[in-house]
Description:
The complex is a heterodimer of chains A (589) and B (659). Helices cover 37% and strands 13% of the residues of chain A. With 589 residues, chain A is of the alpha+beta class. Chain A is elongated, with a radius of gyration of 30 Å. Chain A contains 17 helices and 14 strands. The longest helix of chain B has 24 residues, at 525-548. Chain B is elongated and about 115 Å long. By secondary structure, chain B is mainly alpha-helical. Among the domains of chain B are: 1-137, Leucine-rich Repeat Variant, CATH 1.25.10; 394-521, Leucine-rich Repeat Variant (Alpha Horseshoe), CATH 1.25.10.10; 542-659, Leucine-rich Repeat Variant, CATH 1.25.10.10. The chains are: A alpha+beta (589), B mainly alpha (659). At the A-B interface, strand 12 and helix 3 of A face helix 17 of B.
Amino acid sequence: MAAMGSGRGTMDSQNQVQSDNIDRLKLLYPNVNEDETPLPRSWSTKDKFSYIGLSQNNLRVHYKGHGKTHKDAASVRATHPIPAACGLYYFEVRIVSKGRDGYMGIGLSAHGVNMNRLPGWDKHSYGYHGDDGHSFCSSGTGQPYGPTFTTGDVIGCGVNLVDNTCFYTKNGHHLGIAFRGLPPNLYPTVGLQTPGEVVDANFGQQPFVFDIEDMLRELRARTRLAIDEFPLPDEQGQWQQVLHRMVSTYLVHHGYCSTAQAFSRATGEHIHEDITSIKNRQRISKLVMSGRIGEAIESTRRLYPGLLERDADLLFLLKCRQFVEMVNGTDSEMCGGGGGCLSHNGVATSVISHTSRAHSPVPPDTHHTHNGLHTNGVTDISEQKQNCDVDMTPEPVAPLNPCAAPTAPSTGAPNGAHDEGEGCRASVERMLAFGRELYAMSQKLSQDHYHKSMLEDAFSLLAYSNPWDSPLGWQLEPVRREAVCEALNSAILEFQGMQWVSPVEACVSHSRELLKRMARASLGACAFADLPDRATSNDRSGAPRSLVLRDPKSGGDAGSVAQVGHTDTFAVKAIHSYYWGRGSCVAQS
Amino acid sequence: MQHLTIFMDIESSRSYIDELYSSDVTKVLEALITLKNSVIGSNRQKSSVIQQGIVPRLLQLMSEQNWDPNIRLEATITIGSLAKGTSENVNALVEQGAAVALVEILKEVPIGTKLAEASLCALRSIFLNPPAPISALPAEMRLLSRLTQITREGSPTARACVVRILSIWCGGPIEQEALCAAGACNAIAALLAPKGTTPPPIARALPALDLLAAMCFENANVSQVALNTRYGDKTIPELLTLLVSRDKPLPVAMGAARCITFIHRAGALPADDSRVVFGALPCLARLCTKDMPEDIRATAAETLAYLAEVDTSLQRLAAISNHLMSSLADIVNCPSAAAKQGAFKCFASLGANDEDIRKRIIETHGLMVHVVNGMNNPEPSVRLAAVRCLHSLSRSVQQLRTTFQDHSVWRPLMQLLSESPGTELLTVGSSTLCNLLLEFSPAKEPMLDQGAVEMLCNLTKRPEAALRLNGIWALMNMAFQAEQKVKQRILCCLGTEQMFRLLGDSDTRVIMKTLGLLRNLLSTRQHIDAIMNEFSSQVMQAVIVVLEGSYPAEVKEQALCILGNIGDGEKAKDFIMANEDVLRKLVDYLAHPESKLQEAALFVAGNLVWKGEAGCAARQARLAELGVLRALKLLRQRPDAAHLHDKVKTALAQFNELT
């Protein structure tokens, strides 16, 4: 997560080693969203002339016509057009046999171009022919272009979607640009014309003969340079100030209070929110992040009366999470919401699992371990105590929850000394009661798919004897708390009349949207504008689009300025991409 | 106003310059700093200081080991500043021994001191001004080890300076070997290696690449060492392969491709090595394309010319790479001489062996006009490169007959060769002329009028064997199927004396071509008789000289062929028949163990005994008397001469009355 897209070269080479079980195409074209624009992965069984035969997973093409005249020419297109977000697209064709005359054409054509022809002969069709080595640019007469090709040769066809040009390679040698000013949405195409002609395609599933990585690196460097050199108006070009503000607002937004204060001291950047207010949010965030949702709800009700009453969706989200955390054994049921105040055993433990949680991704005591390590380095001890900056210590939490007995630290060993059968039954009952309440609550809400599936997923956990190992076990991962935490934090900020999203995150999501728009507008440069860490935003959690930044080590508020360096580079990239993306779209419209 | 300033400069300078010669350390130091500040950035001040004769004092202060180290440092920095002045300034410094003094400092001061760095900077400035004072830096192992140590351990500035100095200094095998022995290859590998994924910065990589190229150029031994030198897990060629990639700065990619080229041409990497074929070659072809800056294109074209100069497979690959030919045709139109000559050289390499490529160069890219223009270029390097290109293309018989003729390429070529050109141009030009004369009959007349024969005859008198060969070769080609007056002119102009001199040439190829010229002169009956009528004694003497001398068999074969030609003449036969010595030799050669000499002798005998010509009976009798008949009969019985049996039989059949 900290890699931030730098050093892509090494990442790629590492990935090549383990290519057996990795989709090479995803590595070649990481910015392509295949849900929207699938990559060509084979020849189309439908989009071809009848004289074309396909075999070997629709990668091998052979000619099965008479092959008497050029009227017997036959072509086949790939299953999908080339997505612009590839940036640089490339495929290779190995000539298995040149057949009778070797009248083979390799190239590109638009949807609907006549397939009873070789690529290049018609409008919106482009080809390089083996018999004479000529290139055909939407015309029946070719231009001298390259060498001829025949049995055993590997011909590559590359499409530069930034410049809209096309080049070919022969046996790994770049032959130079063949076509310029290509239209968008072209399909890889091959055409054959005489009996015995057989060619195999490699759309990237196998390593290429030509070093396409080299050209990808070049385009990436070029795009980076274009971003760096993009001219900005003077008032926007004051990076230092803009960056400081971005970093500071980010820290404040997420309640890294002490870090924000330290940063403010170091840079003189003013903090606009009241410190106590930040700390309140921070406290609530930490409760959510440690899985203690009930306490978080309680604190929210107390500090921001009216918020949860007004935002039923949010409350539902929190309650759902609380249910999950109950399964997890991290949330201690307590007198909250409409539930009665029950005496409880106080040991945060799973009510279901009877087995050891060896497979749990994060041991529940992680936060305790960190607690000792990450004490606030800047604020003095008395302040720390008073403001309860450090989460999970019993003393500061207790006052929030006066009716609850002091909680003992969770041990991580769910099968504690208490009576299993008794405790378990009681817990399950409490949970079922909570579930019923939750269900009732959902009935009052608008019945949208999102709420429904969230509830179903949460309830389904009960069906497994070991929920952590179940197909829905992902819900129990601590990382899932982030989305809830962010939603609550945003709601609190909005409730207080502040921005619900931090500028840096707005900037990143804006840039990401712009890149999507560029992809849809066939601007290939979107492939090479590096945005940090896609994985954080498009995972299974359905998290909000804003990006959750975590400290690489603890997610805590380290309170030291040294940490900022990490965020800093990120912000620079984001801002660059933001402005650059905006500039491109302006130029486009 | 202007006058006043100068006046004030001189006035104000006097006082502190006097202080330079003081014995008070403080005063000297103050004066030095004032002087340093006054010369920085002002070429006028630099010249003035040098003219005032202060340099010797500065050198003295710089070299004084027992003085205040600050004085030495400031003096060195001042010298360094002066060395950044005009070319005249630098030359003056070198004349006064600055380079030597700086090298002396480098020998004694510890590495890593400011003084060492300052002297390296100064020395670099001096070396960057051609001609660099190469001899100031002796190839001593101790000194070179010290310098390579700086390239490994010194500050970034010191490293860059040392490497730049050495890259200029390394101009021959002695320097190459010395640097290699001092461990320069290891130091270079370290400079070229990436730090993690970050490539080396351009300021570090460029001098290192230049030094590596200088060390490997035409040096098989050093190239071999470079091939096996590692930094981390990568050898130098592998490091270079990383640097030729498309995302590297253009000068770095250019430098790296050049190094791979030099290592290949020195014989350390084969032509089919992937680092040559997929590393250097595509990089150079890419750097020749239209989008690149002109200076890069020029160097890339010239380097590619060197890369593909001899290997046909590389020529064919280059010819299809990245529209190289179009790129080169475009570079020819660039204004700079460097670009033009690079492109011509590259075309020359591409067309060296492959007829198909030559055809494409001429037909597709209409190069001939540019070649003709190039031969008229005011820049000598462009003229030479154009002639090289013409020479390469002139290997195509088809082009000689068509395009060459259409563009009268002989005209500018003859013009160039008659303007007392340099040896190199003369060699390539006369080589081209050889090819032009081969099939170029329509141009022979005008070329003769321009004094081609005289020029070629003069070439045969040159001390350089290559020029003598080209001269006589061209004459031979010119005489092939020529008119009699042309032949006469060649003979008159060359003179028999020169012909005998050439027959005694140290270069066998020259002798061969001289005899070839004689053969061509003595062909067709009328010409034979006419020439023998005039030059019989000289020709016969020439033949005898060769037949009697200790020449290789192929030379003697040529001489026998000349005899055969003479034997084909009507009256000329008599010159042979009258010479008993020659006839006895003929008998000897018929029995010679060397098959081709037997055959040649048989050819002579056959011509002499041919019946139906005047006096054939008398000749047959005379030859039978001298043993030719017997020799022929013996030859027929020899199993090793089976392939000659038909010819022997034909010859024997002529002796009808005597058998």
